[in-house]
Amino acid sequence: MTVHPHRQSTTGDGAAVLGRDGEIERILRCATREPGTPQTLLLLGEEGIGRTTVLGRVRERASADGALVLSAQGWADDAGHGYGCLQQLLAPPVRGELAALSAAHHRVLTAVPRGDDGPDEAELHAAVTALLDRLAAARPVLVCVDDADLCDRVFLEALFAAARLLAGRAVTMLLAARHESALPGPPPGTETLQLGPLSGPAAAALLDGQPAPPTGRRRLEILAEAEGNPLALVELSRGVQGLRHPPAEHVFGVRLDALPAATRQAVLYAAAAGPGEPVAAVMAALGTDDLAVWAPAEAAGLVTLVEDRLVFRHPLARSAAYLGRPAGERQQAHRDLAKAAVLPEARARHLAGTTVGTNAFVAAALEASAWRREDAVVAAHALEQAARLSPGRRERARRLAGALKAAHLVGDPGWVRELYGRVVRESDDPELVCAAAGALAAALSQESAQREAFELLADVSELFPVVDRTLVLALAGLAAGIASQSGLPEHTAALATLLDRARQAEGSEPWPSAAAGPLVGLDTPHTRRALDALVTAVARPQPATSSLSGLGRPHGAQPVGPDAPPARALLAAVAHQADESDVDLGQSCTADDRLRAARAFGLRGWSVLALVDTLVAIGRFPEAETVIQDAMNEAAVLRLPRLQADLEAQALTVRALRGTLPVAAPRLTPAVWRAVCLDENRATHARLLRGRGLAALAHGDMEGAWRQLRDLFTADGAPLHPFLSARSIAELAVTAQRTGRSAEALPILERVRAEQGERPSTRMTLLLHHAGAMVGPDGEAEEHFQLALVNHGANRWPWECGHVRLNYAIWLRRCRRTLEARQQLTTVLETAERIGAGALAAAAQRELRASGAAPAPAPAPADDGPLEQLTAQQLQIVQLAARGLSNREIGERLFLSPRTIGSHLYNVYPKLGISSRHQLRDLVQGR
User: Fold this and answer.
1) Which residues partner with 713 through β-bridges?
2) What is the rounded distance in angstroms from the CA atom of residue 181 to the CA atom of residue 196?
3) Residue 88: in which H helix or E strand, if any?
4) Which CATH architecture has domain 865-925?
């Protein structure tokens, strides 16, 4: 039951609670008085950060779990009145309990709603304490106070007194405020929970959920300007619909208007300067060195000085300070800042802020300085602005093309589409048309439209003969990436034609100067050879090793030049096709770091999946999970569902190998997978099938694993994906042997072996022999096992080597060669524990026990404690409830009614020694 205050405020930050699961769960643990949690919790955060929204969800969840929730809200108009908030707390349902109190307490509390003269404060404290104590006798009580810093002192002191006197009782105080300093003397043991900015994905989801969400460049601008503040996201998005007045005038306008004129001007200059410019430049533009000019703004909570930077305390304060001034004042601010600027890029940006119409000089300055910070987002903005200021059509088109390439590096498909349309309208120059087509094709591919992307490149390939050779080789390399992602035979077959056309290109125009930054070093002989080698490796996978050797850097030598991420990424891509993990990892990690620093996720997205695959293959699981999470955040912000799907599949694979899968079947994000056409994204499909297959293996479901892994090949044994399917041949063979389907798997193995040619890579040799040992003739099994392990180079893939040794040990034990089996299993266990392969370690432990040996180095299996008492269905329900799913959501997954789910949970709580579902998460995680 929830008792609400009689007045409610609107926060403007949306009804959905996005990105706050951790905070809500922590608060709910306090509400259920779990051991170690405080009785009083302060929820702190700036304006619009979502305090009210979080409180609302906490009230709903706590009430649904049987708590009595009492609510109050502070108001500025009530701060001087003695009992405004207490009157809200004593709403009619609670007022009915007053009659059961002692006469003295009843008299004190009934006087409050009548507005009588206030009682003695000590009497009031005692009465409030008695009331809460009585209410808590029936069920837990949660007191929620929003905007507590605006509540009257008497009310807050009464609550804090009750908290001190009711220590250990089922009463929890939750107070939300902007600053802790505004609250008088919280009781000992009070903890604070700072509500910080939303994560990138949560902020993007909130922005995209607005009635008229922005797209393209403006969407990324708002995400950057809002800095994760929900109110700022909502208010700034309203400006997209044509609002020109300050969106936060109702919040910050009064404070700004109250500033002295000199300070108001200083704040305008600071807002115009942007977050990256030092305060010295702003002071120089103002013509003063007296820092006291900022004191009124600091006192008003608008700005603060941090080292050599002036920081706005709230993202909307900057917006209000800038948009709230007339255009003439803003132009003057930019004019003065341009004169004072030291950095060329800052000077160019401020000159642009003073320009109305076109200006060739300013446009050239913007273009020249666009990549000085090596930031793709900054460069795309600058080049787009340079195009807007360009008086000539040719220069405008060229700079638009530069902006398009930079936006392609950023990776936002909406921005790429906007600029692509403008480029092709402005120019029919073959060079620019081809470059624009490449940028759009890359965006289409990242969105999952592989057929459309490849057709676009095929169409413009007719222009290759008159276009710069470096550009057309880059487009051929892009086509190879699309073909690798699609896995479609027709795309692979068409690569040879595209490569021939690229090799014949004789265009003399250089790569446009605007395309610098992460693309520097693209126009070098080595990079052109790497592009050629990549296309060849994808078109004809067998000679990939020779293609790598042909580049002259088979052992991870550095590309020419210290700043050549394209060369590194291309070398890594060829090495990946050749299964040369050392070269692959050495180059791709360096390139990935550089591209991340440049915010060039559009280019990074092409290499990050191969990087994760390599990290997983060599057993560096924690690093793989870190890269996956970082890339998932970027892909969510940029709205790249295909990449999200790939990363989810890779995350599932890592959890399966590490043995960290939940008992319940893993769920993948439905919205992401609905946006991906698996038929033209066979690399994604292959990663999904392998992830699900390994998850089934980890759960001991051999039939399920077989079904998933078998789908990596067609009915006639052809690979679903020409590269990835073959790398799962050993796992397929293992499940085939375990389920009695060796005869069905053997033709698939023979086809894979034939397609790998006479000299397969060391890794494929390992996998093929492992598969042969599992499904080949019994008399050849040991020879295959030994051939798989004889090459010391195979140790570069520790999990796959460990998997071979595990199955070799099983074979040895069944041949009654127990001592040899134990030797292999000991090596497997050591390897598995070293790389953190929990599933492999558990399998080795089981086999060691079966062989009669006690695996001394291995830790004892985790004790599930009270969870062991549950049935399989009860355990599955508990797992899902611990993840925060409602009874209805659990029922939908398990095809049970919500009532049945509730009944199961009601019955298991006594077995587990808990009283609330909010205690389930800690119990399950600590099992």
Assistant:
1) 719
2) 18
3) helix 84-89
4) Orthogonal Bundle (1.10)
Would you call 311 helix, strand, or coil by DSSP? strand
pTM of the model: 0.83
**Cα angle, residue 373 at apex, residues 413 and 516 outer, rounded to 5°:** 60
Q: Stretch 565-591: mean pLDDT, rounded?
A: 86
Are 55 and 144 spatial neighbours (Cβ–Cβ below 8 Å)?
yes
Sheet of 141-146, strands arranged across: 2-3, 68-73, 141-146, 171-177, 40-44, 191-194
- Encode 485-512: b = buried (16+ Cβ within 10 Å), e = exposed: bbbbeebbebbeebbebbeebebeeebb
Maximum average pLDDT range among 542-551, 664-673, 748-757 = 748-757
**β 303-306/141-146 pair status:** unpaired
Q: Does residue 273 surpass a pLDDT of 70?
A: yes
Residue for token digits 């039951």?
A: 1
Write out pLDDT tens, residues 58-97.
999 999 988 899 999 988 766 556 677 888 888 877 888 8
Whether 7 has a pLDDT exceeding 80, the answer reads no
Segments making up each domain of the chain, as ranges = 2-196, 197-243, 248-342, 599-699, 700-773, 797-851, 865-925
Beta strands in 248-308 (DSSP E): 303-306
CA distance 887 to 879: 12
Closest CA to 29 of 169, 175, 172, 189: 172
Least confident of 445-459, 805-819, 900-914: 900-914
* Contact predicate 652/673, CB 8 Å: no
Residue whose C-alpha is closest to residue 364's, from 387, 341, 340? 387
Is 98 in a helix, a strand, or coil?
helix
CA–CA distance, 899 with 904 (Å, rounded to integer)? 9
Could you report the per-residue pLDDT of 499-546, keeping only the tens digit for each? Answer: 888 887 765 455 444 445 556 556 677 778 888 888 888 887 665 565
Q: Is the pLDDT score of 698 beyond 50?
A: yes
With pLDDT > 70 as the criterion, what percentage of the chain qualifies? 86
How many Å apart are CA 3 and CA 392, to the nearest integer? Answer: 67
Superfamily of domain 2-196: P-loop containing nucleotide triphosphate hydrolases (3.40.50.300)
Strand-pair category, 303-306 with 309-312 = antiparallel
791, 814 Cβ separation under 8 angstroms: no
